[in-house]
Amino acid sequence: VQLVQSGGGLVQPGGSLNLSCAASGFDFSRYYMPWYRQAPGKERVMVAGITGTGGTTDYADSVKGRFTISRDNVKNILYLQMNNLKPEDSGVYYCKWYGTDYWGQGTQVTVSS
Question: pLDDT per residue over 67-89, tens digit each?
């Protein structure tokens, strides 16, 4: 199993970033896939999730209306489009194969002027 993340970086407040998570080694389309964020000194929390078909999405209240989770079940890639970013969105973002201990390697997102 591999979850390989890309994207992230430094962006000014109000900017946008897109994260990707390429999955392999399991039947990606069957599983709910979430994104988590871990801010410095804080626990890892889920910010968005999507069902296997992509038909249902879930968002933390803090990101609703600004983040969009999506997936491509042909390419086996999970995405997180982040718009109107705020400094409090900063942290390391992780994708996860839900219900297992398999995580992506993490991607740093820093929102700062």
Answer: 999 999 999 999 999 999 999 99
